[in-house]
Specification:
single chain; about 350 residues; alpha+beta; nine-stranded mixed β-sheet; three-stranded antiparallel β-sheet; 10 helices; globular; binds adenosine monophosphate; binds magnesium ion
Length: about 350
């Protein structure tokens, strides 16, 4: 509940700067295991909002790991047999494998059995025994998923969890829907996934807050970034974690070790232009998870070398905030003197 309250605060903060146009509509809902806030301005805002809500619930019904009838659950329970799946699931499986390859395995949706061992799926959180982790790690590798036109089969013993990419995909759907309904101004926030369309009413940029990972239950920020027509997606260990014997264990797993990534980062925000490719929201989501696993050096090198266009805000355990040069000009640091701010290429 605390987490939901904190997220709600963050959402409100992210969208509280919205102007009040004549034909605007807004809605908050809880779906995809997070708080979702939608705000749209335009002649068709009401219909767009209704359609948006429906699309989010439909996607949740396809991708949920906890619903018996979802396509993801059917795949996970098929024991490696082929399952007929819908186009969005095929598409997501394809992209998930692309990001596994691109990130050298830092992003891998088949890490699911490892996440389960930590209890991040059913809420009974615990540090798993080393031999349990070893067994489950042997199942990881999304290159073993076989896809054909309308079906998919996991490798034997494998399970998938699309939690690291699904909200980004949902934000891409929202971007397309804004286009269809000619919504020229608005904001979408799905947990740590934000999409902003156009500018504020006075022509200024939307200010998207980056949560202070040290204060997850409050609305404290490390800073804000001014954006227009963009996605901003944050992954952080503070978003879901538990403590055992004085140690903190979070939900982003390093597929190389089976343990929560211990990379020196406390959060990663990936920012991209909304029109950079057909699925920039999905890209931001997959990369925020992967770059959190990689850590500062590998993440920055990856950005320079991978050929994809995106910007980063990294928060480190040793209290630095690293902002890449493409957005540095629009980044406003927090007034509190907790963090040292750096710009990098
Ligand atoms: P995000 O909040 O986008 O960083 O995604 C975190 C979620 O993705 C977790 O709750 C898991 O469901 C899943 N996950 C954890 N570690 C990984 C990983 N290395 N690659 C892909 N998905 C992951
Ligand atoms: Mg992600």
């Amino acid at each position: 509940m605390k987490r939901i309250t904190a997220m709600l605060l963050a959402v409100l903060l992210a969208v509280s700067v919205a102007g009040c146009g004549a034909k605007s509509a807004e809605e908050q809902l809880i779906a995809m295991d997070t708080v979702i806030a939608l705000r749209m301005e335009g002649a068709q805002a009401k219909q767009a909002l209704q359609e948006a809500t429906q699309q989010i619930y439909d996607l949740e019904a396809l991708l949920s790991r906890t619903r018996e009838s979802s396509e993801v659950t059917r795949l996970n329970e098929a024991g490696g047999e082929r399952v007929e799946v819908s186009a969005p699931v095929t598409q997501l499986l394809r992209w998930a494998e692309d990001y596994r390859r691109l990130t050298d395995g830092a992003f891998d949706i088949t890490v699911a059995p490892v996440c389960d061992a930590w209890g991040f799926t059913d809420e009974e959180r615990q540090v798993p025994a080393a031999d349990v982790l070893r067994e489950r790690l042997a199942l990881v590798g999304s290159q073993r998923i076989r896809l054909d036109g309308s079906g998919a089969a996991l490798g034997e013993g494998q399970q998938i969890d699309l939690g690291g990419i699904a909200k980004g995909y949902a934000s891409d759907l929202m971007r397309d829907l804004f286009e269809t309904y000619e919504i020229r101004r608005g904001t979408v926030s799905l947990g740590g996934n934000v999409y902003v369309r156009g500018t504020k009413e006075d022509g200024s940029l939307w200010m998207v807050g980056v949560q202070d990972p040290k204060q997850p239950e409050s609305s404290a920020l490390v800073g804000m970034v001014g954006l227009c027509d963009a996605f901003a997606v944050t992954s952080g260990g503070y978003q879901r974690y538990f403590e055992q014997d004085g140690k903190v264990y979070h939900h982003i797993i390093d597929p190389a070790t089976g343990y929560p990534a211990n990379s020196g980062l406390t959060s990663v925000t990936v920012v991209a232009d909304a029109d950079s490719g057909e699925a920039a929201g999905t890209m931001c989501d997959a990369l925020s998870t992967a770059l959190f696993v990689m850590g500062e050096e590998r993440a920055l090198a990856f950005r320079r070398e991978c050929g994809l266009a995106f910007e980063l805000i990294l928060v480190t355990e040793d209290d630095r905030v690293i902002v890449t040069d493409g957005i540095a000009e629009h980044f406003v640091p927090s007034q509190e003197e907790v963090y040292a701010y750096e710009t990098t290429s």
